[in-house]
Amino acid sequence: MAIEITDGNFQRVVLESDKPVLVDFWAEWCGPCRMVGPVVEELAKEYDGKAIIGKLNVDFNPQVATMYGIMSIPALLFFKNGQLVDKQVGAVPKHVLANKLNAQLA
């Protein structure tokens, strides 16, 4: 299951992680976010132990969303060693996200 990421735990969970991290910036009212949500949950199961997969609700956690200039959701940001290394905005097929994650595991 994807981890809930918040303004309060972002530093510890994402920036201090020793594994690659995928953060799904989303909101309840966002239709495309609801399409991506199940894909993110599948990735969380498949990459368990290899990567951190989390979801950040932009309505309740505006600080991190603002820090990374999130203007459109869903926005999926990929981090490695505390650095933003890749980004995907909008709903895409699962294999696109998996390929981006695999690139961070290499």
Describe this structure in words.
By secondary structure, the protein is of the alpha/beta class. The chain has one domain (3-105): Glutaredoxin (3-Layer(aba) Sandwich), CATH 3.40.30. 38% of the residues lie in helices and 25% in strands. The protein is built from four helices and five strands, in the order βαβαβαββα. The chain has helices at 10-15, 31-46, 62-67, 94-105; strands at residues 3-4, 21-26, 52-57, 75-80, 83-89. Strands 1-3-2-4-5 form a five-stranded mixed sheet. α2 (31-46) links the parallel β2 and β3 (52-57).
Please describe the structure with a list of short key phrases separated by commas or semicolons:
106 residues; alpha/beta; Glutaredoxin; five-stranded mixed sheet
Put the structure in a nutshell.
By secondary structure, the chain is of the alpha/beta class. The chain is built from 4 helices and 5 strands; from the N terminus they run βαβαβαββα. The chain has one domain (3-105): Glutaredoxin.
Count of β-strands: 5
Known CATH architecture: 3-Layer(aba) Sandwich
Percentage of residues in DSSP E strands: 25-35%
CATH superfamily: Glutaredoxin
Structural class by sheet pairing and helices:
alpha/beta
Q: Quickly count the domains.
A: 1
Mean pLDDT: 97
Q: Determine and state the CATH class.
A: Alpha Beta
The number of helices is: 4
Distance between the termini: 23 Å
Estimate percent helicity: 25-40%
Shape: globular
Main sheet specs:
5 strands, mixed
Radius of gyration: 12 Å
Topology pattern, helix = H, strand = E: EHEHEHEEH
